[in-house]
Amino acid sequence: MISPMATLMLVHGGWGGGWEWRQVAERLAARGHRVHRPTLTGLGERQHLGRPDTDLQSHIADVIAVCDYEDLDRIVLVGQSYGGAVVTGVADAMPERIVQLVYLDAFVPVDGQSVMDLTPAALAERLRQLARDEGDGWRVPIWFTADDMGYPPEVAEWYVPKLCPHPLATLEQRIRLTGAVDRLARTYVRCGREEQSIFTPFAERARAEGWRYAEIPVGHDAHVIAPDEVVSLLDRIATAD
Prior knowledge:
Blueprint: E1 7-11, H1 22-30, E2 34-36, H2 56-69, E3 75-80, H3 83-93, E4 98-104, H4 121-134, E5 139-140, H5 146-149, H6 153-159, E6 166-167, H7 168-172, E7 186-190, H8 200-208, E8 212-215, H9 222-225, H10 227-239
Parallel strand pairs: 1-2, 1-3, 3-4, 4-7, 7-8
Antiparallel strand pairs: 5-6
Helix pairs in contact: 1-10, 2-3
């Protein structure tokens, strides 16, 4: 039996699910990699399991559980958008099993920060208000359109209908870190088309701290807009010395 070239764990962003990584995962598997793309509790095909107390730690536990039950080690851990907060917590909890941490246009919290802390105040309040008005107080409805995100029509047609409300507590809970994650090899991939976005500070921090850095200027959700470009980049990262 031939061993896989690398083991990749792909963690999705807010309002999404593991399903959105399918094209990337299939292409990476075709290149010989072992790939997992879990769906976080309360989202995608697991949205019926969401509860008001589904929080960031719930999502961190989701990913750790897959790693434990699948006996994964030497993992290239990839987080997209909100998923950056999740992979930060996962990596800090089990750094000995992570060989590379990749943030794909993602949040990068430090100890004591929540995703809402890292979101512009006006947008954060808008999300809270939507949860109060339309999400039973604990779910944030989809607040963006295909045009907002720059999805080509063929992407919007299959991607947008599968999005679902996101558990508010996952955005509000402040992460607790030991500092172990700071000792890992990290790569930041800037994916937006605009010069400035809410993710710009994380890209700038990564460059200032000497992380590996790359850009895919096709839009925030590059893994669904340009999967081949994301596959090529992740393949290079996973196989780098």
